[in-house]
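I would love for you to help me understand the pair of lines that follows before we discuss the fold together.
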Amino acid sequence: MPSENSGNVTIRELPQTDRFKQVAEIFVSHYEKKPDFYVRVPGRVNLIGEHIDYCGYGVCPMALEQDVVLAVAVETKQTILRLHNAEKIYQDFQVDLKHFEISIGDGAPDWHQYFLCGIKGIFDILPKDVDLKGMNIVVSGKIPPSAGLSSSSALVSAAALATAHAHSFPMSKEKIANLCAECERYIGTQGGGMDQAIAFLATEGCAKLIEFSPLRSTDITLPPGAVFVIAHSLAKLNKAATADFNCRVVECRLAAQLIGKKHGLNWPDIKRLGDLQKALGVDLTQMITIVQETIPEELYTKEEIIRELETTSEQLSQTSLTQNTRHIQSFRLKQRALHVFREAHNVQQWATLCTGPADATTLPNLGLLMSKSHESLRDLYECSHPQLDRLVELSRELTYGARLTGAGWGGCIVALVAPEKVDTYMNMLKEKFYSHLPPEQIGSVLFATAPKAGACIFQK
């Protein structure tokens, strides 16, 4: 059987748990047949390294117990995809897989469009002589949506894995993770590869240092006494529904290109701040100094950037902007670049602390890195939310540190808590933040977690 860290996604015997029994019952009730196989893809929480994966820098996430599970029956005589969501708020969907497109208009994409992204990613690389098959699928998701815990990426990844398995097209974990990072961009979000990488490469009991170009992962064993608590701000943002996320991607790209131009590099070739650092051959602390010296303005208009790069509006649109950011007329380049380089340095320090000998200072120092990360995301990257900031403030007395996790603008915080303080901390949040919620809802927005395993296929 393949190891957890390499090779193809593991195929295992179907576990007899309530989770899978419930999904099977829904499937049989809806399709009047049994599934051929199941796919499980976990959500994730990023412990440190926010908004830097798409700049080429390493991150440190871990997989959650919360997941997306698919029950799948393959149809060999037709090419119809039928999707049924266990959550009744989502409408059923079907389409002929020989003739489908992903049409994204204004606003948030429909849930099935994320699923189609994963299918299209596999179809793009399937050998031409493979006969397309239909699929009947039940989707059951336990990851809170729009929470910064990777519910959308888990759905895209589950769709791709199910499609590959249904067409007898095995792929390595690294290859399918890279593919899913690419094909999620069909939905319009210019993300990095963190969500998909941890979804496939996660190991039970370990966080991961995920690095890119090429994709590689290293187990990060968390120090004894490290408990992570996830708390939802109750503010939701679908990052594909606005230009906020892509604007940050573009601001980082423009910062890299502006610095590259001032250092005599061919700026249109520079797409990421990580590429800029490699081209200049300096370390992260030197990059921070370079940003402060070469990007003096707090705000750049589009016209000023065009003048600095000695280019045209048309070329800037082609080389630097995305479709949903071409209307933006001003950009904060220095602040975004400073966050990226400082956050990349935080990740380096985090990995060093976790891999070195643990002592009484290790957990407080990890917590300090988390707090610094949140301050940077709030002040320099401007992707926090008043509800997130309130949760972080409430967490100060009872945790080592806390920060927003995921894209931001809503979603969750993650807090590092001593085991003996977990109950006290969670009870405090129930009293001061969640007191208006019915008790039965609190478990889905406030929970302690440990690192779980990555994607898996289950068969009887």
Summary: The chain is about 40% helix and 20% strand.
